[in-house]
Amino acid sequence: MITLNTCRIITLGMAIAAAGTSLVNAAPLGLPAVPIPADNPQSDAKIALGDRLYHEERFSADGKVSCATCHAEEKAFTDHRAVSKGHNGLLGTRNAPTVINAAYMETQFWDGREPDLEGQSKQPPINPVEGGLPDHVAFVNIFRNDASYVKTFKQVFGVDKKEITIDHFAKAIASFERTIIAGDSPFDHYQFGGDKSAMSEAAVRGLAVYVGQGRCVSCHIIEQNQALFTDNRFHNIGVGFKNIQGRVGEIAKDFLKAKNKGVDVDVTVLSDPDASELGRFAVSEDINKIGAFKTPSLRNIELTPPYMHDGSQKTLADMVNFYNNGGRVNPDDPLSPFLSGGIRPLNLSDQQKKDLVAFLKALTSPSIAAKVTSTKIID
């Protein structure tokens, strides 16, 4: 059993500094043990390498973009932009999801196009609007031509200079990201720690709305002994529909033609605003998944604005209103014909909406909040 004294967010610096004790597999209150793949076991040396790679700006065309550019610790491992900015100021089409607790996600990216953190890490450096490097060969040559990296890869993976591959990079990055976990929120102490004074009265009322009339718990799941606040599934909740209204069939058809000719899905969805709105369909080609995006965790959501896959909702109140209107900004906006079941007006009162926001703020981990310097949205 995990005690309150061992419940904390784990980052590399804490793990290595904590009296020389490895904390790579510890889990904070409210979360299960971090799943670790059999072919990529954790070690402090590998995590340290991953931390270094995560902050390495040379892995971009202009030498200014690293993983931390879009997933910065001081911004709760996001960038507070509606859509992320890559090399030479190029803008993508998607909001940068937080890395916090990404270790628990069954797929990565908003559309789940990669199955794990290892696969996810390989894409940004060679995406034209992110890192902008031409290919993985050029990418790996950066390691092979750096004596310090050559030495470290040898120590961690037992490989010589010419044996270093993109997979070694991916395993190190993923190992580091699996230490970026956070629970131990007021909600966790209230729900799982038995401290009924841990949440405010408004947050307690908000929890009742969350599991009741708001029906948030249907997708952002709370279990008996833990809460990931996601079902790891894909849903069309109406976000972005106005951008492709009346053109959905044409956009989907053109995308499939291009995909069948070998177009890179990762490149297309981050560079083509129309294709971006296809969501999970771009991966699965299932017409029922048009406009469906992965359910994000709600943990630390207070610290990660703006919201949704396109960053279209700036505040928690905006987001609650969107759901209250049944998947649209305004009650008279058109509804997407592809809406997931259950997306309909909630008829929440103004007080219920305020209480729901209060509950969402109770999902903030103190250790994360202590490191966040600003939550101001960057235009």
Any overview of this molecule?
The protein has 3 domains: 4-177, Cytochrome Bc1 Complex, Chain D, domain 2 (Orthogonal Bundle), CATH 1.10.760; 186-236 and 295-363, Cytochrome Bc1 Complex, Chain D, domain 2; 241-290, no CATH class. By secondary structure, the chain is an all-alpha fold. The chain has 17 helices and 2 strands. The protein has helices at 12-17, 44-54, 67-70, 117-121, 136-144, 147-157, 166-177, 186-191, 201-211, 241-244, 248-260, 265-271, 273-276, 281-284, 316-324, 350-361, 366-369; strands spanning 234-235, 293-294. Helix 2 packs across helix 7 and helix 15 (316-324) crosses helix 16. The relative contact order is 0.15. Residues 1-23 have low confidence and may be disordered. Strands 1-2 form a two-stranded antiparallel sheet.
For this entry, give a set of tags.
mainly alpha; single chain; 379 residues; disordered N terminus; 17 helices; 3 domains; Cytochrome Bc1 Complex, Chain D, domain 2; two-stranded antiparallel ribbon
